[in-house]
Design a protein that fits this description.
17 strands, single chain, 436 residues, 4-stranded parallel sheet, globular, disordered N terminus, alpha/beta
C-alpha cells in the first residue's frame, strides 16, 4: 500500500514531526475491553462482530475455559453480512438471553467492530431501543472498537466518551452569606489504572490536601462522578483526547502535566494537581520528596543496563512520547526515533517540552518505511506491536511488546522500577542468551 511523508514543526520549537501514512500494523480498539472489563465488574461488553473478533478478545484476555468473562461476541454470520437476516432482531434476542443468564449486569456496552460498521448496523439506535425496553433493569451504551482507522488504546477513549453524557452535573458549593455560590472543587483522574495503584495515588493526594478525588472509569459502572466547573481533570493516560474534550465542554478544567510514568513524570503529574488546587508547597514536597528518592533508587539498577542503549519506538499504543521521555531522561537511553499513531499536541505539550532537541518524531505509520529505518539503525531495543516483534527478534533485534505496557501496573513513582525493568529485561535476556 502506498503512502506519503511530510515534515511539520511540533509544539516544541526544537522538534520536528514526520507525518507518515500507509500500511499500518496495530491492534484494533476491541483489545481495550480486556482491561476495561476488569475495571467494572458490573459491566458487560458485547462485541457485535465476527468470529475473528471473538478469537482476538479471548486470546488477548487469556480466558480460561472455566472462567465467567464479562465480555462476549454477537457473531455476525453470512446471512447478516449479506443483508438476508435482520441483525437487530438477532441482537435483541441475544441481549435478552444474556441478561436472563447474567442478571447482575448493570451496564451493557454494545461494541461496534469492523464487520458491524461495514454493514452499517446502527448500534446507537439499537442501544436506544434496548434502553427503552430494559429501563430500570440495565443501562445500554454503545461505542466503536473498530480498528479500521484507529489504534487499540482508542477503544478506551470511545468507551469513556460514551459514559460522559450520563455523568451527573456537580452542584455548586454552599456560599457564604451575600456571596455567589462557588463550584465544588474535586479532582477527577481519567483513565484506567490498576486498583492498587489508584488507591495509592488517591491516598497520596489526600496527604497533600486534595480530599475529593474521583475516577473515570469508576469501579462500579453506575457510580459515575459528577462533573462541573469545579472539576479538575487529570489524565492518567495520554490517549484520551475525545474524552478530555467532552469533559471540558461540560465545564471541567484540564490540568496540563506530563503523564505519571517514571519518577519525574509521576512527581510532575502530582505536583501539577497540587498547583491547580493551590496547595502549600512545603506540604506537597513532604509527600513527594520521599517518593522521588525511593523511585530513583528502584530505577538505578535498571539504568545500569539501559544507559547508552539505542531505542526505537514504533507507533502503537500512544504511550510512546511518555515512555521516550522516561527512558531518555531517567534511564539514559538514546532515542533513535519516537513514533506515535496520533499526536495530540494539546494533551502532550508537557511531554514534548521534555524531549531532547532534535529527537526524530513520527506521527502515523508506513510500516515498511519504518522497518527499513529500524534495520538501517540496528537499535539495541525496539518497542513495537506483537505483529512486528517476532520478525524483528528473528533478525537479531531485541523488542518489547507495547501492549504489555497497557496491561501492567506502571503508573506512579512506586512503579518506576517495575516500568524500567520491562525494558531492561529483554536486554538482560539477550545478554544471557549470547553467553549461554
Amino acid at each position: 500500500m502506498g503512502g506519503s511523508t511530510t515534515v511539520a514543526a511540533a509544539t516544541a520549537p526544537a522538534l520536528e514531526v514526520r507525518r507518515e501514512s500507509g500500511q499500518r500494523e496495530v491492534f484494533c480498539g476491541l483489545t481495550s475491553i480486556v482491561w476495561l472489563h476488569r475495571r467494572m465488574p458490573d459491566a458487560f461488553f458485547l462485541v457485535v462482530g465476527s468470529r475473528t473478533c471473538a478469537h482476538l478478545i479471548q486470546s488477548a484476555a487469556g480466558v480460561m475455559i472455566f472462567a465467567e468473562p464479562r465480555f462476549g461476541t454477537a457473531i455476525l454470520g453470512e446471512r447478516d453480512l449479506a443483508g438476508l437476516a435482520d441483525a437487530n432482531e438477532e441482537l435483541d434476542r441475544l441481549v435478552a438471553d444474556l441478561l436472563q443468564r447474567r442478571p447482575e449486569i448493570r451496564t451493557l456496552f454494545l461494541v461496534g467492530s469492523c464487520p458491524s460498521e461495514v454493514i452499517k448496523l446502527d448500534l446507537a439506535k439499537a442501544a436506544e431501543r434496548l434502553n427503552t425496553r430494559l429501563a430500570g433493569q440495565v443501562r445500554v451504551l454503545n461505542y466503536t472498537g473498530s480498528g479500521i482507522e484507529t489504534t487499540f488504546t482508542q477503544g478506551e477513549d470511545q468507551a469513556l466518551l460514551a459514559m460522559v453524557p450520563l455523568m451527573p452535573r456537580a452542584p455548586a458549593a454552599p456560599a457564604a452569606e451575600g456571596a455567589a455560590p462557588a463550584a465544588a472543587q474535586e479532582l477527577l483522574i481519567v483513565g484506567t489504572l490498576a486498583d492498587a495503584v489508584e488507591d495509592r495515588l488517591i491516598s497520596l493526594f489526600g496527604r497533600m490536601g486534595i480530599e475529593r478525588v474521583r475516577s473515570l472509569p469508576p469501579r462500579h459502572s453506575r457510580d459515575l462522578p459528577a462533573i462541573g466547573a469545579g472539576t479538575r481533570v487529570l489524565l492518567a493516560q495520554p490517549f484520551l483526547s475525545a474524552t478530555a474534550r467532552a469533559l471540558t465542554a461540560l465545564g471541567a478544567q484540564l490540568i496540563s502535566a506530563p503523564y505519571p510514568l517514571g519518577v519525574e513524570g509521576s512527581a510532575a503529574w502530582m505536583a501539577a494537581a497540587a498547583a491547580a488546587f493551590g496547595l502549600d508547597d512545603a506540604r506537597v514536597a513532604a509527600v513527594l520528596d520521599p517518593l522521588v528518592e525511593r523511585g530513583r533508587r528502584a530505577v538505578a539498577p535498571h539504568r545500569e543496563i539501559l544507559e547508552g542503549k539505542r531505542l526505537f519506538l514504533l507507533p502503537d499504543s500512544q504511550l510512546e512520547l511518555s515512555l521516550a521521555r522516561f527512558l531518555q531522561r531517567e534511564c539514559g537511553m538514546e532515542l533513535v526515533e519516537v513514533g506515535t499513531p496520533y499526536l495530540d499536541r494539546a494533551l502532550l505539550e508537557s511531554e514534548l517540552a521534555l524531549l531532547p532537541a532534535g529527537t526524530p518524531l513520527t506521527e502515523g505509520q508506513h510500516v515498511e518505511n519504518q522497518l527499513d529505518r529500524v534495520r538501517a539503525a540496528r537499535p539495541d531495543l525496539v518497542v513495537c506491536g506483537l505483529g512486528l516483534a517476532n520478525p524483528l527478534e528473528a533478525e537479531g533485534i531485541a523488542t518489547k511488546w507495547s501492549i504489555e505496557l497497557v496491561f501492567s501496573p506502571i503508573h506512579g513513582c512506586d512503579q518506576a522500577g517495575d516500568l524500567a525493568e520491562l525494558f531492561s529485561r529483554p536486554l538482560r535476556r539477550r545478554n544471557l542468551l549470547r553467553f549461554s
